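As the next step, I selected for study a record pairing a protein sequence with its backbone structure tokens, which the following lines show:
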Amino acid sequence: MPVVFVAASKLPTPFAEFTMHGFLDEATGREHVVLSLGDVADGAPVLGRLHSECLTGDALFSQRCDCGSQLEAALRAIAEAGRGVLLYLRQEGRGIGLLNKIRAYELQDGGADTVEANERLGFAADQREYGMCRPMLEHLGISALRLMTNNPRKVKALTGMDITVTERVPLHTGHNPHNKHYLATKAGKLGHMMGNEHQGEIVLTRIDHA
């Protein structure tokens, strides 16, 4: 069952007035959105981010993660560039859902790290998938991205769907005493490229295709 476009509208934000595109994944029933700015269908690589939903970080200002800071930094970077896309994917808690995420937090309060907590609940460390991104990007006429991410799995997922990733733009922001162990676990166990020497910066890294 396909991912289908539903509707689009203007979305004024403190950073810019984006266009918000709504999509329905008929296989899962999940609703995803894309925020776009400028002409993204002109064939040139587009500054973009795949951002998985994080209610606690994005909306409730949690400092247990860096998600809210990354969301704001990505939107700000797109606004400053005058052109780009942010795919907001409904995959709470690296795919385990909100209530299981709270259960995982409870285990973390008892000493487990973020990977151990998911595994104790019977889940993989990261259950997200990105297959829904291709039809969303195709609808917008996008075939190449300058991807804002610290996660090499996202680069691999997109290139595996024949989406060209010409550059990786790390998002090193939101580091604080509450998420220090969480970020270290993402780097050590999930392979995220945290780059502590660039904390608080958006750093352009060109992908080596050799």
